[in-house]
Structures are given as C-alpha cells and as structure tokens.
C-alpha cells in the first residue's frame, strides 16, 4: 500500500504524467521567474532567448549561477540594465515593482573533478537548490564591489516572493538539480508549492542530432513541463518541441 501511494504521488508530481498540475495565476499577481545560468555559451544563449522578456509580466527574476562564475553574474546585471533602458521602465512606477536577485550555489561538478567525488558535490548543490527555490537571495556572492552594489540596489524589497512560478534552464548539470529539487518539494507537498514551479528546458542550439546528457535525463524521467529544441530534426525524432530558433 505504501509503495503504491509513493508511486501514485510520484506520477502526480512528474509533469510528463500530469501536464495539467499547474494552475493559471490570477491577473496582476506578483510572479517570480527563476533562470538557471550555466557558464560561457550557455549563459549567452539563455540571455539571448530572454531578450523579449517583459518585466511587467515576470515581476521578479531570480538568476542562479555557480560558485566562481562571475561572468554569468555580471551578464545578468547587464541584462537587467538593458531591460530597464530598452523599455524605459522605472522601478517603483507600478503597483508591483520589477526586481531581481542573483543566487550563488555550489557547482554540481567542477571541470576535471574526479567522478567518484561527483555524488558529494551534486548533493551539496541539491541542498543549496532547496534554499534558492524557497525565497529570493539577498546575498550576491564574491563579485566586484560595483556588481554587489548594483544587485543589492535592485533586490526585492517590497513584494514577497516564495517559490518561483516558472523555472527556465538550459545546458548545465546544475539545471537538472534545480529541477529535481523543485519536484522533491512538490512531492512532499510543502505549503505554497501547489501550482508553482512549472519548468521549461531549452536544449542548446549546438545540439543538432541528439540531446545533451541533461536533456536526456530530464526527458527520460519526465521531469519538465516543456522541452524545447532548436533544430527540427530533434523534434521529428520525438526528442522535444520545435518552435523555431530561440537564440538570436
């Protein structure tokens, strides 16, 4: 009986088996978007596909970067500055202010790290993911003083945000752990998780004929609401949903 209940709960939580689990949020409600930034090319791709993001729809953006990835953190700040400049959007001009934060979590696996140490580093990363999913960060990591000051100025100060309404990720192993953490929180049915943390995974533009390891894990386990691919051949193979090139 216990095993059956466990299996039924798991099927309810996994988006592939229960695609209608998330509810439509009321119009005007504060919304939190969580963006997992990889490093280098993954970060560039992610920010490129978010170029049309409307800050009045996603009123708080949480960017997740790995330890030591100053490049992704600085690019997130530049991206937010570009949003404000492009749209002429002034913070505090609406009833629901547009804000963002940057959270730093341990790397799931460092470059050239021995494989036998990967479970340990992945567990540390997973534990950190629970914290960044629950609330936005007020710590900006070990970046330059100017970056710390800039991100602190725009940290959420008025609206209260808990679990993200939407998680969008691409590429890195960290993305798998963030999504896994969100499913674990939903599995134990913590208050506030119902109807939240929908997930979109965007496969890298560089993946033409096959999915990345992260993509294979997420699709194979039915862990994401939508898997978007940027080459039609992958869609024809049943590996994801093709809606055109997303990276400019």
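Sequence proposed for the structure above (248 residues):
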């Amino acid at each position: 009986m216990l095993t059956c209940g466990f299996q039924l709960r798991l099927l309810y939580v996994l988006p592939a088996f229960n695609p209608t689990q998330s509810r439509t949020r009321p119009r005007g409600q504060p919304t939190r978007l969580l963006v997992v930034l990889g490093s280098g090319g993954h970060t560039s791709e992610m920010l490129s596909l978010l170029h049309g993001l409307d800050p009045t729809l996603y009123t708080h953006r949480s960017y997740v970067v790995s330890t030591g990835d100053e490049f992704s953190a600085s690019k997130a700040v530049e991206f937010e500055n570009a949003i404000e400049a492009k749209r002429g959007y002034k913070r505090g001009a609406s009833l629901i202010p547009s804000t963002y934060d940057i959270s730093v979590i341990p790397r799931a696996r460092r470059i050239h790290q021995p494989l036998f140490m990967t479970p340990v580093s992945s567990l540390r990363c997973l534990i950190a993911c629970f914290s960044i999913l629950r609330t936005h960060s007020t710590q900006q990591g070990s970046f330059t003083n100017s970056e710390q000051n800039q991100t602190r100025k725009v940290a959420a100060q008025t609206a209260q945000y808990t679990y993200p309404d939407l998680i969008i990720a691409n590429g890195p192993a960290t993305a798998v752990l963030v999504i896994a953490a969100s499913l674990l929180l939903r599995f134990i049915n913590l208050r506030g998780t119902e109807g939240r943390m929908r997930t979109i995974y965007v496969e890298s533009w560089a993946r033409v004929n096959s999915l990345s390891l992260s993509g294979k894990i997420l699709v194979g386990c039915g862990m994401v609401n939508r898997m978007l691919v940027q080459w039609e051949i992958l869609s024809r193979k049943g590996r994801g949903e093709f809606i055109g090139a997303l990276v400019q």
